[in-house]
């Protein structure tokens, strides 16, 4: 597809109150086949247009379709995954580079992010949270208390952490692997591969989370996203909306590893769903040459993607975490 036939703009809706306050950015369809956020944003826009509530403090910006090419194609990505290697690029090489050059300044202009996603297989909603406060080199962060409070009020009771650590592990493994030149792993070999919307927001002094609202086609996912937007506005004091109580207890998991699909004939041993439990040594998949991929310990399969491109993430492995939320 020539660039002239690709989408030429990203549409956003901004509401600026007369009283100062937080600057909240809500994103939908960062991946084009994940449309629950798009639909939820439309419902919030209807609420604001009808006067059901108003933005009374701060700035609310909502982007219903963050990746319009992928959305038009009804695919996860256009030329590549927008939610990886997110940065400003002086010489854009693909459509997502152009989007990043608009999206990154938009993230920098806000201080709180709610990024709405969905996933392949059936399962309950969950939140991807950032690290605890730290001054380390991988993902330094000093707003964990605010982010934790946000997590506690969005609704889902399952939280997953450890994304940047596991991405770094995956990049290191790929850099040492013998990968055929035709395997599409160019971005996957970049040390900045793990940086998506929430990671970029944290790197610029803000905070925010990615909310996985349910399976792509589950109509309940739209309600999860809609309620989360309203809860975020209530929590931040931006609108006169009732704040529901924090979730009392959480299931917290930490990603331990990412396993790539090496060949188009690599197959799972069963139709895994996210957070299916596995025992140490249990077979999860079989490589094209007969090798068995097993669980390294007791844990959980996360984001299994039977249609992953060779050289891309096939599934993640997670274990229970002792971190607390709420």
Automatic annotation (TrEMBL):
It comes from the Bacteria. InterPro entries: AspA/AstE_fam, AstE_AspA_cat. Signal peptide: none annotated. Residues 20-118 form the Succinylglutamate desuccinylase/Aspartoacylase catalytic domain. The keyword Zinc applies. GO terms for molecular function: succinylglutamate desuccinylase activity. Keywords: Hydrolase, Metal-binding, Zinc. Its EC number is 3.5.1.96. The keyword Zinc applies. Its cofactor is Zn(2+). This is Succinylglutamate desuccinylase. It comes from Cupriavidus pampae.
